[in-house]
Amino acid sequence: MAVLTVKDLYKTFGAGTPRANRVLDNISFDVRGQTFVSIVGPSGCGKSTLLNIISGVETHTSGQISVTSDDGKPARMGYVFQDPRLLPWRSVRKNMLYVQDQADDETNRRVDKYLDMVGLGKHGDFWPGQLSGGMQQRVGIARAFAVEPDLLIMDEPFSHLDAITARALREQLQDIWSQSKKTVVFVTHDVVEAVELSDRIIVLQPGGKIFEDITIDLPRPRRQTDPAVATLQAEVLARLERMKGMAPQVSAAP
Ligand SMILES: Nc1ncnc2c1ncn2[C@@H]1O[C@H](COP(=O)(O)OP(=O)(O)O)[C@@H](O)[C@H]1O
Ligand SMILES: [Mg+2]
Questions:
Q1: Which residue is closest in CA terms to ligand 1's atom 1?
Q2: Strands 62-69 and 2-13, bridge-based pairing
Q3: What CA–CA distance (Å, rounded) separates 170 from 167?
Q4: Chain mean position to CA 203
Q5: Is residue 254 over pLDDT 80?
Q6: Whole-number Å distance between alpha carbons of 26 and 64
Q7: What is the CATH number of domain 1-76+149-156+188-254?
Q8: Which DSSP helix (H) or strand (E) runs through 97?
Q9: Could you give the strand order of the β-sheet that contains 62-69, starting from the edge strand earlier in sequence?
Q10: How many CB atoms lie under 10 A from the CB of residue 241?
Q11: CA 7–ligand 1 middle distance (angstroms)
Q12: Strands 2-13 vs 21-32: parallel, antiparallel or unpaired
């Protein structure tokens, strides 16, 4: 598990140029332990930028960010993206092994364990092109869990799937996550999905400020068909209606 600390974070693309675009505006939050946090907000509000800064792919303009393992070491991170990004010329199992440091017996056992957990135990020798989109995304999820990350970062992993497949994968993700000890930061534009999955929802508004930080206190496993889940989804949606139509908060770039 990981300890993630974000403090007074700002990001401006093209800082100091006439095209300066402030995308993240004074973001602060902490996440620790086996917590599932979603970052929710409309398209363009800076969600992927925030994830890219957390993962170290993108730099920030000012503020602090730290990700450590809960034993104080640098955190191991795993990633799941919108598209599974499998190498088409490698088998499913070889795609899983590709991101592993070693290919010893223990690693092979771990890869098989997570393939089993996503229901693809018999598909290790298949080519990605032989799998449906939902199955490929399950390989992407298994691959991320199989590196045993302290922090798992997921950027809209179900947004390209049909509603039925997405629902099945949300249920599977919850089950795997409940059995593993991972801190998850999950990005989505879908509030309903976020309520089903998360312990906590950080809502970003256009302009990249935190609009609300909501605790979701529902027992697990949660299922879309559960009335308590549906009631809370409606409640959170109603709260976010206040944000609808809000003009982007344009502030002077540093
Ligand atoms: N590499 C980049 N260079 C310049 N602008 C960028 C870059 N990446 C993202 N942006 C801009 O930052 C804003 C937020 O983008 P993004 O973080 O992808 O939003 P979201 O993931 O919430 O849809 C957008 O206005 C986008 O055009
Ligand atoms: Mg995005």
A1: 13
A2: antiparallel
A3: 5
A4: 14
A5: no
A6: 11
A7: 3.40.50.300
A8: helix 92-98
A9: 21-32, 2-13, 62-69
A10: 9
A11: 20
A12: antiparallel
Q: Nearest residue CA, atom 25 of ligand 1?
A: 44
For 160-165, which contacts have Cβ atoms below 8 Å and span 24 or more sequence positions?
A: 160/82, 160/83, 160/133, 161/133, 161/134, 161/137, 162/134, 165/132, 165/133, 165/134
Q: Say what the pLDDT of residue 225 is.
A: 87
DSSP 228-239: HHHHHHHHHHHH
Mean pLDDT along residues 88-117: 94
Closest CA to 68 of 82, 84, 54, 57: 54
Q: Which atom of ligand 1 is nearest to the CA of 189?
A: 22
DSSP strands (E only) in 120-242? 151-155, 183-188, 200-205, 209-215
Structure token pair of residue 7 = 């403090």
pLDDT for 212-252, tens place per residue? 999 999 999 898 889 999 999 999 888 888 876 554 444 44
Q: Which residues of 163-183 are buried (b: 16+ CB within 10 A; e: fewer)?
A: eebbbebbbbbbebbeebebb
For 126-158, what is each residue's pLDDT tens digit?
A: 999 999 999 999 999 999 999 999 999 999 999
Nearest CA to ligand 1 atom 5: 13
Q: Kindly list the strands in the beta sheet with 151-155, ordered across the sheet, starting from the edge strand earlier in the chain.
A: 77-80, 151-155, 183-188, 36-40, 200-205, 209-215
The per-residue pLDDT for 137 is 94
In which residue are the tokens 């497949």 written? Answer: 165
Strand residues in the chain grouped as ranges (E): 2-13, 21-32, 36-40, 62-69, 77-80, 151-155, 183-188, 200-205, 209-215
